[in-house]
Amino acid sequence: MAAGAAAARVSAWSVFKKRDFLLLWLGALVSTAGSALNSLAAGIYVFQQTQSAFLVGVTLMATAVPSLLVGLIAGVFVDRYDRRTIMIVSNLVMGVVVALIPVLMHLHVSLLFVMILINAGVKQFFDPAYEAIIPELATEEELSAANAFLAIASFGSTAIGFAGAGLLAAISIDWAFYIDAMTFGFSALCIFALQLRPKLDVSEETAAENIFKNLKAGTSTLWRTPMLRSLFMLGAPVFFAFGLWNVLLLPMAIKVLGGTEFEYGIQEGLTSVGFVIGSLFMAKYAPKMQMGLWVVVGALGTAVGGVIYGVSPTIWIGIIFVAVTGFFNSPYSVARQTLSQLHTPREMRGRVFAANYVMRDVIFLAGMACAGLADVFNVRALMVIASIIPFFVAIAALLTPGIGRPAAEWRRALAAFRAVRTAAPSPARVATLADFDRLVGRLATFGYLNDGQRADFLSQALVREVPMGERVVTYGDTATAAYFILDGEAAVGIPDPDPQKDYHGLATIKAGDFFGEIAALTGSTRTADVVATQPSTLLEVPAESLRAAMEVPEVSRLVLSILDERLTRLRQPDLPRLATMDQSVLRELRSGKPPAEASPSLEPAAV
Questions:
Q1: Is 339 exposed, middle or buried (0-12, 13-18, 19+ CB in 10 A)?
Q2: Given CA atoms 285, 289, 294, 298 in this order, what sign does their dihedral have?
Q3: What strand order describes the sheet that includes 471-473?
């Protein structure tokens, strides 16, 4: 049975049956409403005290500036220490900081900016830890729904906070900050109750040299992983457009369309409503289509809605189409987040997500800065230009391998299996240090091996140049080595027992991926066929060499994180049950001890 069919039958609401996800969702719902309350209250107070629209804008920009200063460093800590603890401590510190704002801001308004900066700086530790644990609370089939429901909690609840801030402004603005502080406490309690996997082992000291080494590893993973690089390159112009768009909404609504402040508030509220409806739609229908195509649909719908808003004759027509952009923003955001989580190794998520947040915020601020052009150029024209940018991104995404071209890849994989050639293995040569450098360029984690470990890793390794259409791994063969793709592409497929049928469980693997490692380490037989769909360069590493490399904690975590993710996918009840190692072998792999004699059992495994 195909994995896609299995995913389609997973209920959108099944993720709420998981206690940990429900706790995380409740914490996000309450704390985001509190943060929106705090954000709008701060802007209202600054305007009341200064009557300066510029300083109101500064309060909004202050929330993004700390990302540039501590965002990357925060990602290192998220990967090196227990993410649950980081989230709890971050919530408690933010609660204390926000509770102090009413006391300090009455002494001088400048102290409000200081506390906002501190609060936003602490949040840089919370955000990547939060996103990194989501894949641990939901299976791959549930992940898109999980992200959609969390988007509702995070985005939809802002309308509650905005409304509350307006109400409290007429009573006592101080209470907005006290209530927000209490929501952080509630979120900390929810996270404290989570039952997550144990923290990652840390063998290094947190010295400046190691921090910068880890920063480089995170940014390298983001840039050298094809899917992550594609997502960022496609996202960068959208971030710029959103920054420009968000600032232009106010002058567009009031000065161009003749709306009132009340109608502007309705416009902002209905944007949130549109996003919530879009997120509910994604929770139910995301599995109906390949995730990358939702990026295309979301960007295209946002562009169309934005252009119509830019040429709207009245405020109420404009409000309708702003709500449309909110709806289509959800498929784009949910799909992009899901793809990022699926293609980032567990031990690298903090650094990769933090690097992405920093670059995103830099580009977003650049878009906001360009909104100053509205003082010179026509606001409608700028709004239309900002809206057209996602249209071109949608076209580019449609042509990007792995995002908009999955159907073509699937057909190519199936054709490769049908036309596979049975031939002797391709000629091999001895691997060199230059080949190892190519491996590090694809998988930065192997850069942690010292010179001696690199030499041992390459001592029996071979490099194979595999032509398109050649079978690399055959179902049922005895495994003795693992393979790392230095260049090219291959397809993985499980042959169907029915000779009248083809393969199921088709997947495409590309440069930077590896396969065969689990079966090789445990001595079990191969559980799938692997065929080159492009001329490919493979590094063939014997099991003994790979096991020795796994004595390095970072390499061990990389291999075991892939192992856990593959086992999680294969354990789904609608997917085939495949034979592999028993649990004692799995424990030995995790402990780094020499393997006992492996014997197959009924647990699933990788190729």
A1: buried
A2: negative
A3: 471-473, 529-532, 489-495, 503-510
Q: Are strands 462-466 and 489-495 parallel, antiparallel or unpaired?
A: unpaired
pTM: 0.58
* Cβ neighbours for 126, distance < 8 A, ≥ 6 positions apart: 86, 87, 90, 91, 94
Provide the token pair at 353: 């997500």
What's the token pair of residue 475?
Answer: 């179902």
Residue 464 · residue 390 · CB < 8 Å: no
When pLDDT is cut at 50, 70 and 90, the band that residue 388 belongs to is very high
Q: Quote the tokens at residue 205.
A: 């000291």
487 phi, psi to nearest 5 deg: -150, 150
Which domains does the chain carry?
Answer: 9-203 (1.20.1250.20), 219-404 (1.20.1250.20), 410-591 (2.60.120.10)
Burial label, 568 (beta-carbon count in 10 A; 0-12, 13-18, 19+): middle
For the stretch 31-46, pLDDT in tens is 887 777 777 677 667 7
The span from the CA of 238 to the CA of 127, in Å, is 20
How far apart CA 44 and CA 49 sit, in angstroms, is: 9
Contact 90, 180 (CB under 8 A): no
- Rg of the Cα atoms in the chain: 26
First to last CA, the chain: 17
b/e for 213-226, b at 16 or more Cβ within 10 A?
Answer: ebbebbbbbbebbb
pLDDT tens digits, one per residue of 316-373: 999 899 899 989 998 998 888 888 877 776 667 767 777 777 778 788 878 877 766 7
Interacting residues of 54 by C-beta distance below 8 A, sequence separation 6+ = none
